[in-house]
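F.,

This is the one I mentioned.
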């Protein structure tokens, strides 16, 4: 029904009314027809995020290969300016200057997670990015985004996917994964959103594939932390559960965080089988050299 920006708009309106406003600053707009499928539907992208997979390993149907008796472990990892700079320094110059923190972190964590899980080298690994189609566009990338009214509070998200075999992802440097993430995100424009709607209509609204998938959502700029219902800004604004859903390890978030020492950065919750979590931490320390701060065990 609504994406993060739509939820913040709705809650922001409630907060304004609670503080005494007669009407909210941003009036709600329905506008659902903007994202309707075309008639007739005519998808123009492959939309591999909805693939029905034939897997190399028959039992690899979940994001994580869990043994029936193995426990999962959940940790939050902190990435501040030093950690992000260390990862950025590993990239070719053109990626150092053109890549966002989201692209760098998700690619880096995708590679480390894959190495920790040690899947079959021919198995396809997937990183699904949650990308908003709101806004007028980006002159640097040429993306033409949807002209969605400011008050639209519905869902304007796409789920483009970066795909690589496990072998290629593990063998290549981090820049390889960053390129894949950037390419996946760059697809999302007006035509892509219409193509998604067409694809869903033709294929019965399939769920995105979860096999060997990791989905990232960035919540650093949504505005949940700025909502004021009359008692001041919240101590925390974000998801109630850091590993939501019934499938462990499928979804992770990038959340704003300030350490006790006043260092601003982000925390990223990760869920892995116990044995893989140990290897994941080793890969983080190896690639970051000076190590990474574990914000909390969850």
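My design for it:
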């Amino acid at each position: 029904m609504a994406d993060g920006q739509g939820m913040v708009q709705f809650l922001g309106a409630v907060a304004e009314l609670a503080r005494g406003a007669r009407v909210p600053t941003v009036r709600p707009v329905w506008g659902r027809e903007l994202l309707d499928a075309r008639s007739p539907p005519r998808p123009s992208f492959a939309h591999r995020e909805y693939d029905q997979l034939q897997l190399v390993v028959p039992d690899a149907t979940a994001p994580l290969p869990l043994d029936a008796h193995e426990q999962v472990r959940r940790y939050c990892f902190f990435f501040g300016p030093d950690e992000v700079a260390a990862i950025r320094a590993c990239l070719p110059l053109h990626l150092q200057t053109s890549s966002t923190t989201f692209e760098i972190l998700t690619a880096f964590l995708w590679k480390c997670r894959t190495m920790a899980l040690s899947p079959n080298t021919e198995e396809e690994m997937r990183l699904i990015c949650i990308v908003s189609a709101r806004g007028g566009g980006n002159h640097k990338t040429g993306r033409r985004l949807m002209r969605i009214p400011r008050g639209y509070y519905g869902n304007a998200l796409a789920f483009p996917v970066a795909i690589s075999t496990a072998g290629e992802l593990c063998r290549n440097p981090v820049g390889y994964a960053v390129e894949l993430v950037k390419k996946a995100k760059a697809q999302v424009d007006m035509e892509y959103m219409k193509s998604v709607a067409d694809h869903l209509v033709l294929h019965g609204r399939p769920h995105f594939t979860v096999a060997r998938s990791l989905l990232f959502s960035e919540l650093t700029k949504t505005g949940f932390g700025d909502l004021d219902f009359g008692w001041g800004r919240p101590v925390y604004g974000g998801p109630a559960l850091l590993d939501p859903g019934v499938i462990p390890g499928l979804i992770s978030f990038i959340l704003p965080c300030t350490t006790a020492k006043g260092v601003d950065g982000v925390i990223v919750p990760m869920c892995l089988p116990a044995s893989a979590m140990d290897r994941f931490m080793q890969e983080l320390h190896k690639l970051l050299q000076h190590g990474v701060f574990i914000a909390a065990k969850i």
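The first strand starts at residue 72 and ends at 79.

Talk soon.
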